[in-house]
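Worked example 3 (structure in, sequence out).
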């Protein structure tokens, strides 16, 4: 903020100039002091100029909002968001701003994988000034190790990305074993988060307590992966701030809050997050308002619950001079609540303007020009190759490394002969250059002929089924759609969800995507899918940081032993 803006704010605060917006008659939740008291809020431009009982800054052109009987609290902040799960960041914003979330710290993985530095800049620049304030975590590495990763994630481009005004963290860092081992290349990438306010957002799933010290020493400053209260304490004791997750994949919040029973002072270091919740979950439950409601229902005092959804995240990222409270000089992000027991707001003010009223989005939300972000033919899936049934043939063996799903995303390795119920599977290069064949168990039964999707963590094509011809049909229909999810039978397409924006996003609303997601879930459950999140199952099958075994561009990968169990091969006749 420059001196002219400061001058304008102080003039309003003194009553010497009119406010643009004046919120009258509310009761303020002061997240600094824990007090609740009557106060009005005067706003100039996008920031708060005055909080108090005076009204001498109300002029003839000042818009006055009557908040009588309501409680004023800061707009909610989610410190760890994946903004492109089936929908665009703009579609996400249109749905969650009316629910009270006004700031997110967002992942860049999808954009970087599909368009590198250029795609990140296009997306970040287009969303600057939106009613949902976006800050960014820059991914330092891919989700699946490939031979060309150094080309796709060059250190120089990552350093340039970190100079963007909205880039505040390196993350999320899933390769915590490399950081724990002190590997120089990883430490160089973590060092990109140098300077005041820069953070390293970690993903330490599976890290035992005795390993946390080395992970913290390597530079990790936060973690959103604890799934038990003891894991929260293990990380917090080493100086790592913890984000308590309530997501469609891991609805863990209720149990994680038990950490406060052992260490009540920990509340100042905790944040709430929805992580990467899918549209159907958000539509059914809400967003940060849902996490807040759960915390309140678990007996967390209101001031502590609201701090975990506002001020704590702003303080963690070093942005508490701008965010996290209703106070002079801060961005004018305000939720008007009926009362503190109901965190879904009646009105939302974002950046000094009434952005939503009674659940209806009023503010204009810009859209990213995706044609400028995703420029290559493969990013757009504008390709000519087509799959054939023989692409999914397994090499002759007596025993195969079978990927057994034991939950929606966790797998177990079974080395054995093929059995009834096993599905053929493969990861296929978007450009049709290679295929990594595999066997998957625990996804579906003999009613699943062919399923293909482009929503994997390495952004190639994952395909499963019992009929290689149907698998090829699913892939080819997917290519015709330029990405998405396709379920094929022997002689027809049973379901399709087009995701034409990079093969990862629809142009539809969150409500549209939620309906399509539910239809897909019902279709695969009818074919024997036994878990709760089929979209995430497809997404994480290629994620080589999760136990025990994965489909990767190198082949079937043993995560624990870092070895290829069944190699990829080149495709013939692209």
């Amino acid at each position: 903020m420059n001196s002219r803006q400061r001058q304008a704010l102080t003039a309003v605060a003194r009553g010497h100039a009119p406010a643009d917006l004046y919120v009258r008659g509310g009761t303020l939740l002061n997240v600094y002091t824990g007090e609740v008291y009557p106060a009005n809020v005067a706003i100039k431009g996008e920031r708060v100029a005055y909080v108090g009982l005076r009204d001498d800054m109300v002029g003839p052109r000042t818009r006055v909002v009557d908040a009588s009987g309501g409680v004023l609290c800061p707009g909610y902040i989610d410190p760890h968001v994946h903004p492109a799960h089936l929908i665009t960041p703009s579609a996400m914003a249109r749905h969650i701003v009316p629910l009270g979330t006004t700031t997110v710290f967002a992942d860049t993985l999808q954009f970087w994988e599909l368009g590198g530095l250029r795609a990140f800049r296009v997306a970040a620049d287009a969303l600057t000034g939106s009613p949902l304030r976006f800050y960014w975590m820059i991914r330092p590495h891919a989700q699946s190790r490939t031979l060309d990763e150094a080309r796709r994630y060059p250190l120089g481009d990552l350093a340039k990305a970190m100079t963007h005004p909205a880039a505040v963290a390196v993350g999320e860092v899933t390769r915590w074993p490399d950081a724990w081992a002190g590997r120089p290349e990883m430490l160089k990438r973590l060092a990109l988060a140098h300077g005041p306010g820069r953070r390293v957002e970690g993903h330490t799933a599976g890290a035992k307590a005795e390993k946390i010290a080395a992970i913290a020493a390597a530079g990790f400053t936060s973690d959103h992966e604890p799934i038990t209260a003891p894991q929260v304490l293990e990380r917090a004791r080493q100086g790592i701030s913890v984000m308590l997750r309530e997501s469609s994949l891991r609805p863990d919040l209720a149990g994680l809050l038990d950490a406060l029973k052992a260490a009540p002072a920990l509340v100042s270091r905790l944040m709430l997050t929805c992580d990467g919740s899918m549209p159907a979950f958000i539509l059914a439950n809400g967003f940060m308002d849902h996490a807040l409601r759960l915390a309140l229902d678990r007996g967390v005092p209101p001031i502590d619950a609201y701090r975990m959804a506002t001020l704590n995240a702003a303080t963690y990222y070093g942005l508490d001079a701008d965010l996290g409270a209703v106070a002079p000089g801060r961005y004018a992000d305000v939720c008007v609540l009926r009362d503190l027991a109901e965190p879904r707001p009646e009105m939302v003010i974002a950046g000094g303007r009434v952005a939503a009223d009674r659940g209806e989005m009023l503010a204009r939300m810009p859209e990213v020009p995706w044609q400028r972000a995703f420029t290559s033919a493969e990013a757009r899936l504008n390709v000519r190759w087509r799959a054939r049934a023989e692409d999914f043939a397994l090499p002759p063996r007596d025993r195969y490394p079978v990927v057994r799903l034991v939950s929606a995303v966790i797998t177990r390795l079974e080395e054995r002969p093929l059995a009834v119920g096993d599905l053929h599977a493969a990861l296929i290069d978007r450009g049709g250059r290679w295929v990594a064949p595999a066997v998957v168990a625990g996804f579906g039964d003999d009613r699943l002929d062919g399923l293909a999707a482009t929503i994997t963590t390495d952004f190639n094509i994952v395909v499963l089924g019992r009929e290689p011809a149907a698998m090829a049909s699913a892939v080819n229909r997917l290519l015709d759609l330029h990405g998405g999810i396709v379920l094929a039978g022997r002689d027809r397409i049973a379901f399709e969800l087009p995701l034409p924006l990079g093969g990862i996003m629809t142009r539809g609303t969150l409500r549209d995507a939620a309906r399509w997601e539910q239809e897909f879930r019902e279709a695969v459950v009818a074919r024997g899918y036994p878990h709760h999140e089929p979209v995430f199952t497809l997404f994480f099958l290629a994620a080589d940081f999760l136990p025990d075994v994965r489909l990767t561009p190198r082949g079937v990968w043993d995560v624990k032993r870092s070895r290829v169990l069944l190699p990829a091969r080149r495709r013939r006749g692209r």
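Notes: Residues 389-570 form one domain. The CA atoms of residues 451 and 487 lie 5 Å apart.
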